[in-house]
Amino acid sequence: MRIEYIDAFTLIGLSVRTKNVFELTPKTAKVAPLWNEFSRICLPLLAASPKLYGAYTAYESDASGEYDLIACADGLNLKQLEPVLSQTEYTQQSVTIEAGKYLIFSAKGKMPHTIIQLWGEVWRYFNAYDCEHVRLFKTDFEYYKADNEVEIAIGVE
């Protein structure tokens, strides 16, 4: 992992409100269905090799509270989404990743197993008694660098 200062940037995509406990059971999980819908509706609208992100924002409290997840891409705009929104239950959302210091976790491997494992690493790190950083719970994001490579950026003080 590494610390990196990231300038603010804005993304557009489809959003859902969820919490981690919902994601433990397929019946209540919202993340996988969101990504499936994003792939079906949004990916065909994008140019070749888009930068894909999962943005986390509007935290209710901490890792146990509700949050918004926006499946998004750097090349997506609201006008592209308007005609296809009637095909989905999800809403379009614009999200600004706040400028600031982020702790970056990286992994390579088969998705979604790799991203799930990497989130486990994030939670273990921040739950450790000797954790060196304080998580902000403002904006965090996943950046899918390739089909088998991902980074998770967690905003820290």
Structure description:
The chain is an alpha+beta fold. The chain is built from 3 helices and 8 strands; from the N terminus they run ββαββαββαββ. An 8-stranded antiparallel sheet has the order 1-6-8-7-3-4-2-5. A hairpin with a 2-residue loop joins strand 7 and strand 8. The radius of gyration is 15 Å and the shape is globular. The model has no long low-confidence stretch (mean pLDDT 93).
Task: Describe the structure using short key phrases.
about 160 residues, alpha+beta, 8-stranded antiparallel β-sheet, 3 helices
One letter per element, helices H and strands E, the order comes to: EEHEEHEEHEE
Largest beta sheet: what is the strand line-up? 1-6-8-7-3-4-2-5
CA distance, first residue to last residue: 16 Å
The secondary structure category is alpha+beta
- Which stretches are low in confidence, meaning pLDDT under 50 for 5 or more residues running? none
- Largest pleated sheet: 8 strands, antiparallel
General shape: globular
The average pLDDT is: 93
The Cα radius of gyration reads: 15 Å
Query: So how many helices?
Result: 3
Helix content estimate:
10-25%
- Tell me how many strands there are: 8
Strand fraction: 35-45%
Please outline what is shown here:
With 157 residues, the protein is α+β, with helices and mostly antiparallel strands. The chain contains three helices and eight strands.
